Amino acid sequence: IDETGLMNGVTTADWVDETIASWRHSVWVGVYDPRGFIFKPTKYLKCVRDAYCLERMHRAFNRGLMQYGMFAVTKKMDA
């Protein structure tokens, strides 16, 4: 993006601290309101797999093995 000359500088941010709580929260939402889980027996395996993956992702973010970031750039004004 920088090399095109069409954009202003790129800014980046590490959002791990802001998003880390959401991984476990996603699992607990299903625990506290299991209606979608209970009434769809064909989805049992999927729910267990998703909960396992979300927990693994939480641990990876917490240990620094994964990162979640954002970048932003604005277009230069025409002269």
What does this structure look like?
The chain is mainly alpha-helical and 79 residues long. The chain has helices at 16-32, 35-38, 44-63, and strands at residues 11-14, 69-72. A two-stranded antiparallel sheet has the order 1-2. Helix 1 packs antiparallel against helix 3. It is elongated and about 55 Å long. It starts with 10 loop residues before the first strand and ends in a 7-residue tail after the last strand.
Strand order of the largest sheet: 1-2
Shape: elongated
Estimate percent helicity: 40-55%
Number of strands: 2
How many H/I helices?
3
Fold blueprint:
Layout: E1 11-14, H1 16-32, H2 35-38, H3 44-63, E2 69-72
Antiparallel strand pairs: 1-2
Helix pairs in contact: 1-3
Offer a concise description of the structure:
With 79 residues, this protein is mainly alpha-helical. The protein has helices at residues 16-32, 35-38, 44-63, and strands at 11-14, 69-72.
Labels describing this entry:
79 residues; mainly alpha; two-stranded antiparallel ribbon; 3 helices; 2 strands; elongated
